[in-house]
Amino acid sequence: MADNDNKNIVEPEILNEEPEIRGIEKSTVESVMEDSFLKYSMSVIIDRALPDVRDGLKPVNRRILYAMNKNGWRAPHATVKSAKIVGEVMGNYHPHGDSSIYDAMVNLAQPWKMRYTLVEGQGNFGSMDGDEPAASRYTEARMDKVGGELLADIDKETVDFRDNFDGTEKEPVVLPSAVPNILLNGQMGIAVGMATNIPPHNLGEVVDATVAQIDNPEITLDELLTHIKGPDFPTGAEVYGGAPMRQAYETGRGSVTIRAVATIEERKNGRYSIIITEVPYGMSKEGFVDKVRELVLAKKITHIADARDESARGKVRVVVELKKDAYPKKILNQLYKLTGLQTSFHYNVLALVNGIQPKVMGLKEILAEFIKHRQGVIRRRTEFELRKAKERAHILEGLKIALDHIDEVIKTIRESYDDADKRLMERFGLSEIQAAAILAMQLRRLQGLERDKIEDELKQLHELIKKLEAILASEQEILNVVKAELLAMKDKYGDERRSKIINHELGKFSDEELIPEEESVILLTSENYIKRTLVSDYRRQNRGGKGKRGMTTKEEDVIDQVVQASTHDYLLFFTNMGRIFRLKAYEVPAASLSAKGVAAVNLLQLQPEEKITAIIKHEKNANDDGYLFMATQKGTVKKTPVKDYANVRTNGLIAIKLDEGDELRWIKRTSGDNDVIISTSAGQAIRFNEKDTRPMGRSARGVRGVRLRPNDSVVGMDIVTGDDQTLLVVSEKGFGKRTKVSNFPSHKRGGVGIKAAVVTAKTGPIISVQTIDPEVTEALLVSQNGQTIRLSLSDIKLLGRTTQGVTIMRFSDGDAVSSIGLMADRPQDEGK
User: Fold this and answer.
1) Is 604 left (phi over 0), alpha (psi -120 to 50) or beta?
2) C-alpha pair distances (Å), 399 with each of 393, 426, 610
3) Does the pLDDT value for residue 141 go beyond 60?
4) Local confidence band at 192 (pLDDT 50, 70, 90 cut-offs)
5) CA angle 535, 604, 699 (to 5 degrees)
6) Which phi and psi angles does 256 have, rounded to 5°?
7) Which residues does 584 contact at the CB level (< 8 Å), separation at least 6?
8) Rounded to whole angstroms, how far apart are CA atoms 119 and 86?
9) Which pLDDT tens digit goes with each residue over 53-71?
10) Which of the residues 93, 138, 493, 538 is marked catalytic?
11) Which of 672, 638, 668, 669 is nearest to 655 (CA)?
12) In terms of Cα–Cα distance, which of 122, 126, 127 is closest to 142?
């Protein structure tokens, strides 16, 4: 038993035999997984996700169009049930589920996704807000005209066919595609490890670029881009290109920024609305409205009263209503930044070359592949037509022979039974095909043959054969046919561009870009409340008017400073304690004429008892040459280079050291060679050249500018740039005049000056003396009670030094002039 048991034991060496001996392949789990995943990846890439560069279609799109064409479901055929189309495609060509096929067909019919729709839908095919289409049993469709052009001549052996999934049908490998559909409608797809994102373009521009490349294969990208301006989205909008867009057309990867088209309209109640009429590609209007409401609730955007979608009948109209005192352009720019009104489209022009090789391509390479494809289509179509023409001509030549011997042919046919074709061939020298064609005709037709018709058709066929042979004999002739057919497509389907191309890059928003650039008036009260208003808020009046109700101030608070500046200008704030701060004008909160404004301490880091006493503007494009010339209330002056104030910290810088009881009040920018006029409340004025004051550092005290008499104080300091200037003198009770600067001779600094105006109880003390440049045309006067008047300087009389002036502003009882601002007409930058 032991021996028998041992005989049944298999030796270990036999168990460990090499697998090849038993026909078994050795594989690891890793290698099997790698091979399977690779096969799956290639299947997704080639058979599902990526378009072919030649016709711009994914397999499912191609199969849908081919099935519709094969069954005649194209105009003028009536639309057919979408479920019927889906069933045909799924049953014969695309066994991947009805929902995926229907979704793909719906996409081909949606005009907000396709620049040129390939399917014409009937019924509910969804909306651009993401609404789902109705079920396929409720909708109908047929092939659209442009879709038909992709299949033109497919029955002329122009493309290769292959077996379908079960070998029962044939399907095209690629469509003939009379237009470069990959550029016209673009594509988006995600494969395994790769993705494609191609924007749509304008047909006319693409045709022009293709023709230009046919004419000059060495054409440069920049020359092509003179034809193709950029993408042309079905929803329109503005496209900002620049270097990233050029890179996309050069390498296949890049980006553009898409911005909605919006206008600002004034409503009947004087408030404004933002009207959006074109939206970025793929944006949901409903989603935008929801986002606006979310931002308003989160207080990230203020001054929006309502947002709603008023779109109807294919026209986009989204309305954002603004509240009173809102800055429409500011809010619009905030919407661009925080919502989908501005998006980026990232190019990844990945497509299949020859149906098998995924490749990222630039514009020139895409057009080259399409041209090569069309050359092949035209060549194969011409060969097919030539073969058919020769076959028809051969038959007609046989019919002509029969016509020449009609009686004998009829007699031969009547006398023959089974061998009529052979007897015809032997007797008249006909081919088998010619004899069969004669025998296939009815006898009465054979007797009625008309020689002229046969000869005319034969002549036309010979001319056609000659033409077709000439085309096949020359590659240039084939290219000429490609050009002619492309231009015919342009004439037939070309339309106007929808997206406006702005050929520069739109970068990220800075705070400054969110603020519209416009002329403003900065108002500061003696209690240091500050606000910003628009110049247009002040209506020009004639002198002597009362003006309009302006800033509401608290008791004993009066307007102290009025400065005109662009919202993008810098403002330099000087305080009574001799310190300087700097802000952009738009950082001063905007408010209405009647609003009080905000306390300056909320904007600047002011010390207790410190107040702003002077504001000067520094225009955004100005250089740092020249000096800042300062004057104090007690007549001390000082000048310091502007560059010393280039970097102003948020907690301020020392501008001047002051004597006890003195305050810094006036600052002007000078060239280093200007004359200075200092005026006092008693009507004295002194003019001297600033060279009398040497440049000093920021912390210096300065020198005497004017010697003051008892109870007198400085009320103004200004710069003289030329004797063509005039001096505007305004007194507390609304009297004013203009006097020529040339009436004030220059003296040494430190004197008491000469008479600038007659001061009486009727006029009250002088409160402001300012020089007027030729470009300054208007003055803005503000009273202690907040009344404002804007008047032309030409309405203020030009008088001598020793006069009191004329009434330029009238007041209610107890009111008086508080401050004066001068304004120049300054054009705003376009597009702001």
Assistant:
1) beta
2) 10, 16, 115
3) yes
4) low
5) 110
6) -135, 160
7) 512, 567, 568, 569, 570, 571
8) 13
9) 999 999 999 999 999 999 9
10) 138
11) 638
12) 122
CA 156/CA 759 separation, integer angstroms: 104
| Spatial separation of the C-alpha atoms in residues 459 and 180, rounded to whole Å | 36
Q: What is the pLDDT of residue 204?
A: 96
Residue 15 banded pLDDT, cuts 50, 70, 90? very low
442-446 long-range contacts (CB < 8 A, ≥24 apart) are 443/410, 443/413, 446/402, 446/406, 446/409, 446/410
Q: Which residue has the higher pLDDT, 446 or 684?
A: 684
pLDDT digit string, tens, across residues 685-716: 999 998 899 999 888 889 999 988 888 888 88
Helix axes 406-415, 432-439, angle to 10 degrees: 80
- Residue 707 has, within 13 A of its CA and on its CB side, a CA count of 8
Instruction: Give the closest residue to 341 by CA, choosing from 193, 238, 464.
Output: 238
pLDDT band at 446 (very low <50, low <70, confident <90, very high): low
Question: What is the mean predicted confidence (pLDDT) over 238-257?
Answer: 93
Residue 609 has pLDDT above 70, yes or no: yes
- Told to judge if 138 belongs to the known catalytic residues of this protein, a careful annotator would answer yes
Residues 6+ apart with CB under 8 A from 472: 379, 382, 383, 386, 478
Cβ within 8 Å of residue 554, ≥6 positions away? 527, 596
Give the pLDDT mean for 364-387.
96
pLDDT interval class at 826 (50, 70, 90): very low
Task: Supply 166's token pair.
Answer: 């079960």
- Taking a C-beta distance cutoff of 8 angstroms, is the pair 307, 318 a contact? yes
Contacts made by residues 96-100, CB under 8 angstroms, sequence distance 24+: 96/48, 96/60, 98/136, 100/60
Per-residue model confidence (pLDDT) at position 556: 43
- Which of residues 291 and 592 earns the better pLDDT score? 291
Rounded distance between C-alpha atoms, residue 196 and residue 57, angstroms? 12
Q: Rounded distance, CA 356 to CA 701, Å?
A: 83
In terms of Cβ atoms closer than 10 Å to its own Cβ (0-12, 13-18, 19+), residue 734 is: buried
Query: How far is 541 from 504, CA to CA, in rounded Å?
Result: 43
pTM: 0.64
Strands (E), 19-154: 80-81, 119-122, 140-143
Residue closest to 365 by CA, chosen among 215, 207, 251: 251
pLDDT of residue 22: 61
CA-derived radius of gyration, the chain: 44
Contact residues for 66 (Cβ-Cβ < 8 A; gap 6+): 93, 151, 154, 171, 172, 175
Structural domains of the chain, with CATH: 50-177 (3.90.199.10), 261-340 (3.30.1360.40), 371-493 (1.10.268.10), 517-824 (2.120.10.90)
439 residue type, one letter: L
Confidence of residue 101 (pLDDT cuts 50, 70, 90): very high
Whole-number Å distance between alpha carbons of 804 and 536: 31
Segment holding 424, helix H or strand E? helix 420-428
Residue 214: Cβ within 10 Å count: 20
* pLDDT at 545 > cutoff 60: no
Report the distance separating Cα 126 and Cα 128, nearest Å.
Answer: 7
Rounded distance, CA 359 to CA 51, Å?
A: 11
